[in-house]
Specification:
The structure holds two protein chains of two kinds. Chain A is an alpha+beta fold. Chain A has helices at 2-29, 48-60, 62-68, 137-148, 151-157; strands at residues 74-81, 97-104, 109-116, 121-129, 165-166, 180-187, 201-208, 211-213, 217-221, 226-230. The radius of gyration of chain A is 29 Å and the shape is globular. The termini of chain B are far apart. Classes of the chains: A alpha+beta, B mainly beta.
Chain lengths: 240, 376
């Protein structure tokens, strides 16, 4: 009997050590550190359906229509955002709020709209001036179309002018055949006499495969729809 | 079969003791985060062996700003609570004026995407993991943490980076979270010189917006860490910054922006703060534009104030930034004087790349630990 007692005692003692350890191990493995995603969180990337829904809600909001009108309104960005509560503990980390930025290029006015995807409503709308709205591939396409109407741009680009396309996505590392793409950078003048000190202006760059053409250097004033082509810099190191 | 009463008691006591021990080891539960999956980084240090320190944070790829950090928590030991450090951190603008006065580019003003990142950018042999196809997470050795004669400790760090495809330039936006609680932000400018002005000197000025919320967002204040010397005597002071403003960085005064929380002290009762320390590689520029005159800015948190080029309006009129929710800003500079190494003209096009040129800053804890946990 005493031997049986000792064996039983040993087994129970062993279990008493193993059982809590197993529980703790299970608990640690189920902590977020193991990178297991069980639900959607506030800043998780949007699905295409969520993006489309957020854009639709923003565009249909009365306050947005009042600011932008309805025709010709462009989408600038749709990103998930997290709004601050009073203290960290009160912040809802599972909220699905989305910032939608829209732009009306003819009037050069934009709107920043916060959309609550759980409630399907726009919870805040802020008016943006033209200089507060980031440039997009739509602006680049506009600028390029204007540039193609400029005889000097067409002359410098030569017969290849019509083969250039605005870059629309992330660059590819190595294309099988060199692509002719045009890219743009936002530019703003510090000279108050230059319209680009106030207007929305893009500087265009022309790329053939991995290399950039030195010419033409083109600035497009999207506000005034004007194109200017810079004269080439001839001396390679005289300009710095 | 009956167990003796003492054996039963011994088993019960053993069970309870062991359960309590395991609960104690189970540590403070991790904070709930606003991200999951690949966007959540949860890393203990050292990477091998029992935990000493721990980072937990979110990242987000945002067109325009590139790689953004959200909700960075740090824990100084498994028994200590998680410390909230960053609400978010981002590159707010990259301003690039050319020497002839024009053009003057605002490279974050376009919704540029991140470039693709693959195994060649982010090799597993360097501790790399490619996230979402455009961000690299590296967890690796960071060199000597300390050395004392024959004793030595090598530190480790997490590095998250993505590269903004800003037309002819790529900007590598890098965030580092070290085992000792230090956060570093860097921007590296690389790729092709400006078409048509390939040899014109210019400056890339990344301006970081850092919503440092030490111990949460209420009750934070900022002071200007300042070193002075009179005769043979040096003196360090921390004059508080009461109102939102822009400030110059004086390297000879070892200026830092020191962010503290009204209630946060370490185990010795010393006030904890995080110091923003510039890490310029050449110097810091000032340009015609008013927002480039100061190197540091301190503003009150406002979710609509995200644009560095509008900092003048954010600080006019000045508002109190004492014991409240603050945001700090810092502008670094990369002075790019083109060189033959950058490339050459071939058939009317520029062929070549400018090698990466870096600038950045450090957020360094002061009196966060009671003493370094990495010394035996």
């Amino acid at each position: 009997m005493r031997i049986i007692n000792r064996i039983a005692f040993s087994i129970l003692a062993l279990l008493s050590f193993i059982f809590p350890a197993a529980i703790a191990s299970w608990a640690q493995n189920t902590q977020p550190g193991s990178r297991v995603a069980t639900d959607r969180r506030a800043l998780d990337p949007l699905t295409p359906a969520e993006q489309a829904l957020a854009e639709r809600i923003a565009r249909s909001d009365g306050r947005v229509k009042e600011v932008l009108g309805e025709a010709g309104v462009r989408l600038v960005s749709v990103i998930p955002v997290l709004l601050k509560a009073d203290v960290p503990e009160k912040t809802n980390v599972a909220q699905r709020q989305v910032e939608v930025v829209l732009f009306q290029p003819q009037r050069e006015v934009g709107a920043r709209v916060i959309v609550n995807l759980r409630q399907n409503v726009a919870v805040a709308v802020n008016r943006l001036t033209g200089d507060q709205v980031p440039y997009t591939n739509d602006d680049l396409a506009d600028a390029f179309q204007l540039a193609l109407r400029d005889p000097e741009v067409v002359r410098v680009l030569g017969p290849a002018a019509q083969t250039f396309r605005p870059r629309t996505g992330p660059p590819t590392t190595t294309a099988a055949t060199p692509e002719n793409v045009v890219e743009g950078l936002p530019v703003r003048s510090s000279d108050p006499n230059d319209p680009c000190s106030k207007h929305r202006c893009l500087w265009l760059m022309f790329r053939r495969g991995n290399d950039y053409l030195s010419q033409p250097s083109v600035t497009v004033d999207l506000t005034d729809k004007r194109v200017s082509v810079e004269k080439p810099v001839t001396d390679r190191k005289a300009d710095h | 079969m009956k167990l003796s009463r003492s054996a039963t008691l011994a088993v019960l006591v053993g069970f309870c003791l062991c359960l309590f021990a395991q609960v104690a080891v189970a540590q403070v539960p991790p904070p709930s985060m606003p991200c999951s999956g690949a966007n959540l980084v949860d890393q203990k240090f050292p990477t091998v062996g029992p935990e000493v320190t721990h980072w937990r944070l979110c990242w987000q790829a945002v067109n325009g700003n590139g790689l953004k950090i959200h909700w960075a928590y740090f824990r100084t030991s498994p028994a200590k609570p998680w410390l909230f450090l960053l609400w978010d951190a981002e590159v707010s603008e990259i301003f690039v004026p050319y020497h002839t006065g024009s053009p003057r580019f605002y490279d974050v003003g376009y919704m540029f995407p991140l470039t693709p990142v693959g195994a060649a950018d982010c090799p597993a042999s360097q501790g790399g993991t490619v996230l979402a196809g455009n961000v690299c997470l590296q967890v690796h050795d960071r060199g000597l943490s300390w050395k004392s004669d024959s004793q030595v400790y090598r530190g480790e760090e997490i590095v998250l980076w993505g590269a903004l495809a800003a037309a002819n330039y790529n900007y590598i936006i890098e965030w580092t979270f070290r085992d000792d609680g230090i956060v570093m932000g860097r921007v590296g400018a690389t790729s092709h010189n400006f078409p048509g002005r390939e040899f014109e000197t210019h400056v890339h000025n990344p301006i970081w917006r850092l919503d440092v919320d030490l111990n949460g967002w209420p009750n934070d204040s900022v002071a200007l860490g300042t070193h002075t010397e009179v005769g043979l005597t040096g003196n360090d002071t921390q004059p508080p910054i009461p109102l939102s403003t822009g400030l110059l960085w004086d390297p000879r005064a070892f200026n830092t922006l020191d962010v503290s929380d009204k209630f946060l002290v370490n185990g010795k009762g010393d006030k904890t703060y995080y110091q923003l320390i510039p890490l310029p590689t050449q110097g810091l520029a000032q340009h015609q534009e008013a927002f480039t005159k100061p190197d540091f800015w301190v503003t009150h948190y406002n979710p609509a104030q995200m644009s560095a080029k509008d900092l003048i309006s954010y600080t006019n009129p000045p508002v109190s930034v004492s014991d409240t929710d603050i945001v700090i800003w810092y502008r670094g500079s990369v002075h790019h004087h083109p060189r033959d190494e950058d490339g050459e003209k071939v058939g009317g096009a520029w062929h070549g790349v400018a090698l990466v040129m870096w600038t950045g800053f450090m957020l360094k804890p002061h009196d966060l630990f009671d003493r370094t946990p990495f010394y035996p």
